[in-house]
Amino acid sequence: MGSTALLTVVLAGVLLWIPTIHADNHGAKNDEKHLCICENDKGTCKNETCRGGVCFYTWVQGREERGCFSESIREQCSGSFEGFFVHCCRGHKCNAFVTPPPNNSGEPTTTPPEPPRSELWIAVSLLLLLTTVSVCLVLFLRYRHATCRLRDPEDHDAAMVKVPSGDEPTYGEIFDEFCTSGSGTGLPYLVQRTMARQISLVACVGKGRYGEVWRGTWMGESVAVKIFSSRDEQSWFRETEIYNTVQLRHDNILGFIASDMTSKNSSTQLWLVTHFHELGSLYDFLQYSSLEPESCLKMCLSVACGLVHLHTEIVSSQEKPAIAHRDLKSRNILVKRNGQCCIADLGLAVIHSQSHDYLDVGNNPRVGTKRYMAPEVLDENIRVDVFESYKQTDIWALGLVFWEITRRTIVNGIAEEYRPPFFDLVPSDPSFEEMKKVVCVDQQRPSLHNRLHSHPILSAIVKIMKECWYQNPTARLTALRVKKTLSKLDLDSDYSIEKLKRDI
Ligand code: ADE
To answer: What residue's CA is closest to ligand 1, atom 5?
Structure first.
């Protein structure tokens, strides 16, 4: 990717930040000398004017903004690159008629007031400083880019990386440029913000209590935008925190791109931007698709791999705490084009590190989905101060997800209709008490069709499910054990296919 393009996104982040500083601070009183023209699409202007120490005009890849900010950050004024232009002035509505220069790299087309000589020197020095920093940044990123590729060659979803045109970066490439080691997490905050604000929403693909999910486009690529309902803002904070502080890039965890919070007409909009998977959730997929046993195995194994990655603490340089999901279900799993799945929605997750000795359960008032709640959650006997307890509830839910997948798997020419777990025992949207009666008091488990026992893969998955559903949470399998058992089946089925081919 062209480093200029990356620089474009970074600097756009810095420039787009300027109006926020103003909006956030509303300027110190002694700063509010000048009445400036205020124009932006974020709804932060009042009567199209604002007051501040400096009036500004920015032009970022065709998007114009006018506003004001405090004297103390006027150094943000210097800068004009290909694709950007920023101009500041002092005086009554002095930013009213500024427009970008024809080649957007020179002086503005209106003549700003002549700056005093000392300020000219400061401006020139700052421009020189900015140029030097930019050159160093480009060289540094090139170096990092090379080392990152060596370190982690499979780190992005190849299906998502396509170059729409010329020198534009894909988000996979932007991640690669910033491919951060050590604390390596999301993109810098300002870059996330800039990317999020360049997204066009195309179609709503999901709606629920949580809010909405949209397909959007960014630089010609599809992205998913989850817009959180205001009552679920704690889930946005938690998911944003986790994606930005934990190294979570994994084939079977939904890929994060950006988080953004905007304020419009005094209401807050919370966005989470992720990879888009056109097959939608596992729940949607199972409504209209049936599977061969090998595809069923591949799906189950991929979910188990995602869960192992979440549950495992890593203590090497690519450090990662252990995470328990707490709301695993088919609606929170997405189906990828390669037949694997990835786990989404970390809004309720708990984080644990043995090496750093902490358990962070967050402060989300939300609870998991009742239908998928483990017996110890329903009878409120779960040990909330022990991290292992949360992993054990994920395993219960994992067994239920496997059950949903196996119902749709064709054995002896038969697949069952899609049904949610306990469909025959509780009504839709069951209450806590209804679930507790079935799962804790009567100790019922989902029923398993006879056909599953006549296929080696399916009968092995049935055995796993049963071991995920022990009443005693400590007796359940671990995610790693589930993964290992399924991996072995995968090898065996590859082996038998190869053997079959040879025999033929
Ligand atoms: N529904 C929820 N999240 C989605 C995503 N990332 N891609 C496609 N559909 C989704």
So the answer is: 276
Q: Which two tokens stand for residue 217?
A: 């486009």
CA of 169 to the centre of ligand 1 (A): 22
Selecting among 327, 345, 442, 490, the annotated active-site residue is 327
327 counts as catalytic: yes
Question: What confidence tens digit (pLDDT) does each residue in 178-211 have?
Answer: 654 434 577 888 889 998 999 999 999 999 999 9
Nearest C-alpha neighbor of 302 from the set 267, 329, 339 = 339
pTM: 0.70
Residue ranges per domain, the chain? 3-104, 142-276, 280-498
Which homologous superfamily does the CATH classification assign to the domain defined by 280-498? Transferase(Phosphotransferase) domain 1 (1.10.510.10)
Nearest to 79 by CA among 11, 152, 154, 159: 11
**Position 272 pLDDT exceeds 90:** yes
Q: How far is the CA of 299 from the centre of ligand 1 (A)?
A: 17
Q: Per CATH, the architecture of 142-276 is what?
A: 2-Layer Sandwich (3.30)
Say if ligand 1 is within 6 A of residue 330 CB: no
With a 6 A CB cut-off, is 342 part of the ligand 1 pocket? no
CA angle 352, 353, 354 (to 5 degrees): 120
